[in-house]
Amino acid sequence: MNCQQFEKLVVDLASDYLMEATTAASALAHTKDCARCAARLAAERRLTEALRTFAVSEAAVRAPERVRLTLRAAFDKHLAETAAVASLSPARHLVRWWVATAAAILLLAAFTVALWVRTSQMEKEPVAGTRQPKQLQPSVPPKTGVKSIVEGEPNKLAIARSSDAAVTAQPRSRRAGRERQIEVDSESEEEESEAEFIPLTLVAQTEPGETEQVVRVEVSRLTLLLWRLPVSAERGEERVQAEVVIGEDGVARAVRILN
Amino acid sequence: MKKVPHNPSDEELLRLMLAGDGQAFEQLYERWQAAIYRFALRMSGSEPLAEDVTQDVFLRLMRDGWQYKARGSFAAYLLAMARHCLLRRLQQERRFITFEAGTDDGMLAEERLMAETDPLAELTREEMIAAVQQAIEGLPLHYREVVLLCHLHELSYAEAAAVIGCEVGTVRSRLHRARALLAEKLRFLGKADKAAHHLPLTGCLI
User: Fold this and answer.
1) How far apart (Å, rounded) are the C-alpha atoms in residues A100 and B84?
2) Tell me, what DSSP letter sits at residue B201?
3) What is the least distance, in Å, from the CA of B94 to any CA of chain A?
4) Rounded to the nearest 5°, which phi and psi values hold at A239?
5) Do the chains contact at B36 and A42, CB–CB below 8 Å?
6) Which of A241, B65, B113, B197 could be a cystine partner for B61, CB 3.0 to 4.6 Å?
7) Could you give the C-alpha distances from A114 to A15, A117, A140, A219, A248, in angstroms and in order?
8) Cis-peptide, bond into residue A141, ω within 30° of zero
9) Which residues of B touch A33 (CB under 8 A)?
């Protein structure tokens, strides 16, 4: 071992850190031949000793009692808060779970519908100027059925506000010469009750010329309750079919319960 | 509620504490408060700051203790948390001491210090302790922390590297230079053979 190699080991050697026995022996043997390295090792050992003395003196240093008291109070408070959350009734947990599930389904449905509407619009773009009836293929849910709404025909949709004033039927599309033809499952339509479309509050108004789509979806009664629709809360988990009027922006305008 | 065993491990105490066992919390606090407080105190030189850091560490342990994975040592986990809290508070209080390179000029201080005689050699134990404390607190922060972790808290190089978030080799080299700076500050290593000092390093490649 030479002095440069020794220099790399001197701190570990002086601090009694673990190292290979042969390496330690070689380093110590070097100090017998090299007075300078022996002095280096002695100096490092004195420093280590001073640091150890300091470390021993530090053993008495501890955090003041007020820190413990503060932390104990914080711990008890934290415990109480945790216990309060845990003491929520199972029914409330269930309701929360259902609300979360319903919200997730609603978001998924809205996203799918928006995607579908957008795809439909993109399909229309290349044939600008030629107004052809469009075949819409509802994607969600698979059983989706939609009505045929033709401009100029008496509209069957009676949009009633939940407030005192009822709004009479209005054409859902005002684009001149525009015709929206949507496939309808005629058999199922006959079986359905003719409920009124109920406008959803806090949504954008239908713009003149805006094309709308009617999409059939299956949602839980709880979701409809969240929309403040008049359904029974007793069977909140039961799923019902509904038709939703979707604007070009993908936002639901109105809803109608089918069963 | 499950009783705290007589000599529980840190992991066991943490698990019980997170389950709401106040006794486990007290035991864990008693076991580790001094180390955290001392580390923060010697790093910052401020008692109020050290108290705040100690509180921060245990509050975080209550909140995020479940994240602890028993791969590394519990001491390293707590000291890393303490270091993080301390640096954040130092930054907030604009008392941050920059991690400058200090005297990393290649020439190690021991070559200079060995020329000195030892004015502190005859100091009493108390005076020496005070001198060492002063010397440690006078080190740049990145040197100070390796000295505290490796010598006061007796962490291995690997544990200290885990606390700081650097390589083991970095800890080793920083400790080497930190000790050289300390020795220079203390100047009590002058008993080293003056004659030996005058030998050039390259003249001794045996």
Assistant:
1) 37
2) G
3) 24
4) -100, 140
5) no
6) B65
7) 70, 5, 11, 17, 8
8) yes
9) 206
- Residue A71: strand, helix, or coil: helix
Q: Are B198 and A62 in contact (CB under 8 A)?
A: no
Contact indicator for A26, B198 with CB cutoff of 8 Å: no
Structure tokens at B81: 């948390």
ipTM above 0.95, yes or no: no
What tokens appear for B20 in the block? 């709401």
Largest CA distance in chain B: 70
Let me know: does A50 contact B128? Beta carbons within 8 Å.
yes
Contacts of A174 (CB under 8 A, 6+ apart): A151, A208, A209, A210
| Cα dist from A68 to B27, B42, B46, whole Å | 11, 20, 18
Q: Which among B29, B55, B133 has CB closest to A54?
A: B133
Average pLDDT over every residue of A198-204: 64
| Cβ–Cβ gap A72/B22 under 8 Å | yes
Answer whether residue B8 shows pLDDT above 50. Answer: yes
Q: Is the CB of residue A245 less than 8 Å from the CB of residue A107?
A: no
CB contact under 8 A, B179 and A70: no
Please report the sign of the dihedral spanned by the C-alpha atoms of residue B60, residue B61, residue B65, residue B71: positive
pTM: 0.54
pLDDT digits (tens, 9 = 90+) for B90-132: 888 765 454 444 444 444 444 444 444 454 555 678 888 888 8
Length in residues, chain A: 259
CB-neighbour burial class of residue B102 (10 A; exposed 0-12, middle 13-18, buried 19+): middle
